[in-house]
Amino acid sequence: MLPKFALLPLLLALALPTCKKSHQVKTIGETPTPVPTATAEPSTASGEPAAASPGKVAVDQTAQVIAFGYHRFVNQVRRPDTEITPQMFEQQMQELKNRGISVIGMQDFLAWKRGEKNIPPRCAIITFDDGWKSQYDVAWPIMKKFNYPLTLFIYTEGVRGGHFGGGEAITWEQLAEMRDAGVDIEAHSETHSDLRKPYDKIAKKKLNPAEYEQWLHNEIVRCKETLEQRLGIRVNCFAVPYGYYNKHIEEVCMQAGYEALFTVYGQPITFRSNNDSLGRYLIEGNKPKVFTDAISMIATSTAGGAPVAEFGATNLQAKPGDGETVKTPSPLITANLAAFGQIDPGSVLMRVSGLGVVPAKFDPATHTVSYQVTEKLRDKVTVIIEAKSQGKKAEAHWTFAIAENAGAPAAASATGAPKK
Ligand SMILES: [Zn+2]
């Protein structure tokens, strides 16, 4: 891992003029910090800043990270939702370089979130999902060309030899080779199922509540154990298949010792983003705009201006919650802004994607901002709330989804279009 970070200390030296000089800033590239076990630092799972400890350094809390997810790399795109050409992928990697966005490894990202390591002000994490062979023989060489660190999210039954591992699947030997070269390998369940649904794809069987708990345990915990034992690694991240999860799945993940859970709701990740639902931008071959939009999100938000304090949706008890899927197309949106501190009540502003600024109500007594949507929303909905707190701009944003058949009479349970 070390050689690929050779340039970063230089970048960091340029990037950290605001850090207190009295603190020794640990730069990426030094002796790797041992990853603490989840039980040693339970506070990180909630996203709350952990109490100061000897391992803490002055990290840049205004840095922002975007996480990208890719699937298959093919010359002829037939399934644009999961495929991309090697040429387009390489262009995107080049674009990160051109824009001064540093690609960092997953463990450096997590160390930053724990307050143990610094990262450059604008970063990206590159992840590949599902363990396709083209990741090994097409995309990995491109990553090596750029000297970019890489994270794989693997579902164990999809590895060749597993139940779903066909001819285009990666092998355990290839994974071992990638591991030896410093590729970070993380978990993506056993069978790549919608984990909210009590159905065992391999046994083709509907599960009763007790069976479901056991199965969920296998998908989340046994998957981690399999990867750790077969590859001799430590797995501390979980990407939920299709991005479908709920509070219970989140809890099982955090109890299993995962430090971070990744979804597919792309949004810039900040120091205060909760590790139990970190959004990734999934890049699709026919939607290059997703990539350019993601880049512009962090490009603009760090381009100076008033200091912005970012708050995670969980801290605000946001409703509908981050990553939630709701069945009504016109939900009541609420958030508690107590975490913003003392705010100027007249400065509270709510934006809703597709609607723009909405006439939200703010109640200073309860710190609650609310807006009853009157139109019908569709698909993904992002809410951005901003307010002035002691002269500084505070901001929070989160994303929820409207179920596909929302508002339909006698709606069946929502599934939505599967997204890997
Ligand atoms: Zn997947």
CATH superfamily membership of the largest domain: Glycoside hydrolase/deacetylase
Major pleated sheet: 6 strands, parallel
Structural class: alpha/beta
Which geometry do the CA atoms define? globular
Listed once per kind, the bound small molecules are:
zinc ion
**End-to-end Cα distance:** 28 Å
Question: Would you state the CATH class of the largest domain?
Answer: Alpha Beta
Number of individual domains: 2
| Radius of gyration, whole Å | 21 Å
Annotate the secondary structure layout.
Blueprint: H1 8-15, E1 64-70, E2 72-73, E3 83-84, H2 86-98, E4 102-103, H3 106-113, E5 122-129, H4 133-146, E6 151-154, H5 172-180, E7 184-187, E8 199-200, E9 205-206, H6 209-231, E10 237-239, H7 247-255, E11 260-263, E12 278-279, E13 281-282, H8 288-301, E14 308-311, E15 325-326, E16 332-336, E17 349-352, E18 356-358, E19 361-363, E20 368-372, E21 380-389, E22 392-402
Helix pairs in contact: 2-4
Residues 129-130, 188, 192, 241, 420 line the site of zinc ion.
Question: What does this 3D model show about the protein?
Answer:
The two termini are 28 Å apart. Helix 2 (86-98) runs parallel beside helix 4 (133-146). With 420 residues, the protein is of the alpha/beta class. It has helices spanning 8-15, 86-98, 106-113, 133-146, 172-180, 209-231, 247-255, 288-301; strands at 64-70, 72-73, 83-84, 102-103, 122-129, 151-154, 184-187, 199-200, 205-206, 237-239, 260-263, 278-279, 281-282, 308-311, 325-326, 332-336, 349-352, 356-358, 361-363, 368-372, 380-389, 392-402. The relative contact order is 0.11. The protein has two domains: 21-28 and 55-301, Glycoside hydrolase/deacetylase (TIM Barrel, Alpha-Beta Barrel); 308-402, Sandwich (Immunoglobulin-like), CATH 2.60.40.1220. Residues 129-130, 188, 192, 241, 420 line the site of zinc ion. Residues 129-130, 188, 192, 241, 420 line the site of zinc ion (ZN).
